[in-house]
Specification:
The complex is a heterodimer. Helix content of chain A is about 45%, strand content about 15%. Chain A has 3 helices and 9 strands. In chain A, strands 1-4-8-6 form a 4-stranded antiparallel sheet, covered by helices on one side. In chain A, strands 2-3-9-5 form a 4-stranded antiparallel sheet, with no helix packed on it. In chain A, a hairpin with a 7-residue loop joins β2 and β3. Classes of the chains: A alpha+beta, B alpha+beta. The interface between A and B is large, with 89 and 98 residues.
């Protein structure tokens, strides 16, 4: 017997998509949708949120840019000025008023006109500045007579002079007896006098913090 | 595809689904990476914001510090010369030379700092001169007190010999002076930031700026000059050669002691003059003695001054003779000036009271002339000011004088009372110099008929009531 199927080809039982295929296709479509959806969520959701947050933060930072620049310029000015002021202060501190020193020295030697304690004079004076060691004053000195106590008195008076507080060192009393017959009394004690001043004070540096 | 087997179709679908899933997973992985990167960036930016906020928070403090430092620096650099002012400084040296009397022999520039790099370039000059110790010290002092910062870094004094050149009796020395100054290099300065409301902030911070400004010490000193002191670079001992010209040290000492004694005596006299118990007569004689002694001492001091040649005694001469004598001279001037103040120019109170009593008696006894004369004799010492407690007494005395003179003037008036008509109920009248005047009528501008009685007529003359009896 010959069977003739009069149904169109696509409706014929033998040509219909089998349910397995349909289920698989549905499943595949579902998986693909889920995957694309996941990607979409991540790309258009989280990434966009992050970008938006970044833009917001960037805008916030940018809005502070002007003030930060101003701060940096101020800080640079501060550092620069502070250095200059410090230099000027160092220069000021390094100065000694020598006319005052000389007046004080003259007062010590003159001793208010009293000659009993000592009668001294100098051969010359040399003042040499040294920023590291301090100023050195060389005063070859003499006192009238051969009484050593007069020389000791003079040393004592130098040590009590107003400038003595700035001395780091003073020469010890040594002498050589000399005679000048053209003078009365002819004997006198010649002795060296070296005054070493302390170096100019420098402001103490701030202690560094231990890390 | 129609011919594909089911298996093939299933495989294809599975492959496609797997491929799409793979792509999606890859995309998600890549996107996560991007998100992480963004997260890092966000974290960085957030840290930047925190740092920026911290900086912004510090701005007011830094602004304050910058304003203070800027203002201080502005003040500080004023003391450091620029190149142009350095030329002026050299010119200033010439002025100082003239003021101090030194004689310069050279100016050498020792060291000039590198101007291009350093903020402050040191410049050193060595000034060579010949001068007495006092001239040299004055020059040094002028340099050190110069408005611009100059530091003397080294100097040397080589004394002249005893027979070498002198100025005003002082030996001339050779002095070498090394001076250092600094020029301020503005080139290295960073551009000043514009601080908003600078002027207002400046006003707010004025006190703080001033406090910080004080931190820099540019010491100044005023050199007092010679003040009778001796040159410390000259041997002060007595010259044993060629002696005989000058008095010996002992003689010079005795001259000083003599004058010190005279000054002590005059000081005593002066104290006595000023003592409270000293009478006017004593004051006069003491002042006379004081003046005589002072004039004598001054003339002697003029002569003896040249005899004090021993240098250590010159200071004593200056401090113990010349100074006190000047002081005495000044005090004498004060004594003379004080004199009129000390003497009371007015009559003592009890004396004024006596005068008033006597004048009252005189007036009451009709001794008008005597009363007037009494007052006029003491008139010069009766101008007591209102502030003086005797002022009231003086006014009373003057009042009696006025009464006396008015009464005398009234007495002198040509008033011939020829008759009176006394009316008990109405006003009475008087026939005066041929004219009838009723009570209350004016005889003249300053003369009024006040009351007419049978025996006497009352007049008011220059405000004073006087009676003329029949």
């Amino acid at each position: 017997m010959i069977k003739i199927n009069l149904l169109p080809a696509d409706l014929r039982r033998g040509n219909r998509l089998p349910p397995r295929i349909l289920a698989a296709a549905f499943g595949a479509a579902l998986i693909i949708s889920a995957a694309v959806g996941w990607f979409g969520l991540v790309y258009f959701g989280s990434l966009a949120d992050a970008e938006q947050h970044l833009a917001k933060v960037t805008a916030q930072l940018d809005s502070r840019g002007g003030k930060v620049k101003y701060h940096d310029q101020l800080a640079a000015n501060q550092k620069d000025y502070a250095l200059r002021v410090q230099t000027i202060q160092d220069i000021g501190l390094s100065r000694r008023v020598w006319s005052q020193f000389m007046d004080d020295l003259i007062d010590v030697v003159n001793n208010n006109g009293a000659t009993e304690r000592h009668l001294a004079w100098f051969d010359n004076i040399t003042v040499k500045g040294d920023t590291k060691k301090g100023v050195k004053v060389t005063l070859p000195s003499n006192v009238q007579g051969e009484d050593k106590s007069l020389m000791a008195n003079f040393h004592e008076d130098i040590e009590a002079a107003p400038f003595a507080k700035d001395l780091s060192k003073k020469s010890d009393p040594t002498f050589k007896l000399e005679v000048d017959p053209s003078r009365t009394p002819s004997e006198f004690l010649k002795f060296p006098m070296v005054l070493q001043f302390k170096p100019a004070e420098k402001p103490k540096a701030k202690p560094k913090k231990k890390k | 595809m129609a011919n594909w087997t089911q298996k093939k179709i299933l495989m294809t679908m599975g492959g496609v689904a797997l491929g799409v899933c793979g792509l999606a997973a890859g995309g998600v992985y890549y996107t996560s990476g991007l998100i992480d990167e963004i997260g890092v960036k966000v974290a960085e930016k957030a840290a930047g914001i925190v740092a920026a906020d911290a900086k912004i928070k510090r701005i007011p403090g830094i602004e304050k510090e910058v304003i203070i430092l800027r203002e201080n620096l502005g003040e500080y650099v004023k003391i450091l010369p620029d190149d142009r002012e350095l030329t002026d400084f050299v010119r200033m040296l010439q002025k100082f030379e003239r003021q101090s009397g030194i004689r310069s022999t050279g100016l050498i520039q020792k060291k000039a700092g590198d101007k291009s790099k350093a903020r402050f370039s040191p410049i050193e000059y060595t000034y060579q001169m010949t001068a007495t110790l006092w001239q040299g010290l004055k020059f040094m002092n002028l340099i050190e007190n110069f408005e611009r910062f100059v530091s003397i870094t080294a100097f040397n004094i080589k004394p002249g010999k005893s027979d070498s050149q002198t100025v005003d009796g002082e030996i001339v020395h050779t002095i070498s002076l090394t001076m250092q100054t600094f020029t301020y290099n503005k080139a290295g300065t960073k551009k000043d930031v514009t601080i908003p409301n600078y002027e207002d902030r400046l006003v707010e911070l004025r006190e703080e700026i001033w406090k910080r400004m004080k931190a820099i010490r540019i010491d100044r000193y005023e050199h007092p000059g010679m003040q009778g002191r001796r040159d410390i670079f000259v041997d002060p001992r007595e010259s044993g050669l060629g002696g005989g010209k000058d008095p010996s040290n002992a003689e010079q000492r005795s001259i000083i002691d003599k004058h010190i004694g005279a000054i002590a005596q005059m000081t005593k006299t002066l104290k006595k003059i000023r003592a409270e118990g000293t009478t006017l007569f004593e004051q006069y004689s003491l002042e006379k003695a004081f003046k005589t002694d002072l004039a004598k001492t001054l003339s002697e001091v003029d002569n003896d001054g040249s005899m004090i040649v021993y240098r250590p005694y010159r200071l004593r001469w200056s401090q113990e003779v010349i100074g006190p004598l000047d002081s005495l001279k000044q005090q004498l001037g004060n004594v003379v000036l004080d004199k009129p103040k000390e003497k009371d120019p007015y009559l003592p109170g009890p004396e004024i009271q006596t005068l008033i009593a006597l004048m009252a008696d005189d007036c009451n006894n009709g001794q008008l002339e005597q009363a007037r004369e009494r007052y006029e004799a003491a008139q010069d010492r009766l101008g007591v000011p209102a502030t003086d407690p005797r002022h009231g007494l003086a006014v009373d005395a003057k009042s009696w004088h006025h009464k006396a003179t008015t009464a005398l003037d009234f007495k002198g008036l040509d008033l011939n009372v020829q008759g009176v008509v006394v009316n008990g109920t109405g006003s009475s009248g008087v026939l005066l110099n041929g004219e009838v005047f009723e009570e209350g009528d004016y005889v003249a501008d300053d003369l009024l008929v006040k009351l007419v009685e049978e025996e006497q007529v009352w007049f008011v003359f220059r405000g004073l009531t006087l009676v003329r009896t029949m």
